[in-house]
Amino acid sequence: MGTIDIHTHYVPSAWPDLSQQIGPGVWPSLRVDSEREAMIMLGEAEFRRVESDCWDAEARLADMDADGVALQVVSPTPVFFSYDKSGDEAVKVARIFNDLALEICAPASDRLLPFAQVPLQDTDAACAEVDRAIAAGHRGVEIGNHVGDRDLDDEGVVTFLQHCAAQGVPVLVHPWDMPESPRLDRWMARWLTGMPAETHLSIIAMILGGVFDRVPPSLRIAFAHGGGSFAFWLGRLENAWHRRADLIATSERPPSTYLDRFSVDSVVFDEAPLRLLVDTLGAEHVMVGSDYPYPLGERPVGSVLDRADFLSDAEKAAIRHGNARRFLAI
């Protein structure tokens, strides 16, 4: 069995003018520069340069074959989430991109597994859209790790996660919308430090906010980018839960007892942090992820796993594909 990559992204080669389709505002659009290159725009500002591997199934499959990847989970690029818009506007955006994702994956639907986006700011609309998307052929849902100042322990988000658990929909949590400041705007620091911190904070919210106490264990949820900095600082969190219980012991049990409730991907690039993830969460809660096709992703996919001599063959097989098969209910 080849590798299953649970963390990749797509960008369609075109989509409707959202300002005309939905209404005025700062919307993502695509400036096509050539057959192989384009620029995602936010209003008039350049956001990210992308290439045809974002939308071309043939290009994706060639790279997958080169890296020994059997299956890819293909998720939205978070800039499309539109959580800052009204629920009515965001559900229209979600439907547009979810339908385009199905088109991108259709040429190889046995290998490219689309994950939907939802208007997470509107719980009822989010539940309805994930049901529509799954019925149409999506295999799961990707959500951002927060909606403005609402983290994953927000009541509406908890209700959505309960719905996903009841419907058997796997959830991939991706960091996004990192804080900006003069210090963070240098060297891509929002991506280098902000992303790990965002994911760390949201796992804490799931624990201390009581989400794992309220959502059934049947929820299959994974956090991108190795769970951020959570594994490294679990000891600090555990110490604080016991020593400052007046402020922090808001979950039913200590943080370390919830480690079997979620998974993370392996896109940490070096054997030492991968060992930490395995030592902390167990090999059964780590899955290959690459962040393909973006430049800060891992290529060849799974190369950090290949170099991890401290893992047994059985552990490598679990991380390479076994755990993902369970996460995706394959």
TrEMBL record:
<keyword id="KW-0456">Lyase</keyword>
<feature type="domain" description="Amidohydrolase-related">
    <location>
        <begin position="4"/>
        <end position="328"/>
    </location>
</feature>
<dbReference type="InterPro" id="IPR032465">
    <property type="entry name" value="ACMSD"/>
</dbReference>
<keyword id="KW-0210">Decarboxylase</keyword>
<comment type="subunit">
    <text>Monomer.</text>
</comment>
<comment type="pathway">
    <text>Secondary metabolite metabolism; quinolate metabolism.</text>
</comment>
<keyword id="KW-0862">Zinc</keyword>
<dbReference type="Pfam" id="PF04909">
    <property type="entry name" value="Amidohydro_2"/>
</dbReference>
<keyword id="KW-0479">Metal-binding</keyword>
<dbReference type="InterPro" id="IPR032466">
    <property type="entry name" value="Metal_Hydrolase"/>
</dbReference>
<comment type="similarity">
    <text>Belongs to the metallo-dependent hydrolases superfamily. ACMSD family.</text>
</comment>
<protein>
    <recommendedName>
        <fullName>2-amino-3-carboxymuconate-6-semialdehyde decarboxylase</fullName>
        <ecNumber>4.1.1.45</ecNumber>
    </recommendedName>
</protein>
<dbReference type="InterPro" id="IPR006680">
    <property type="entry name" value="Amidohydro-rel"/>
</dbReference>
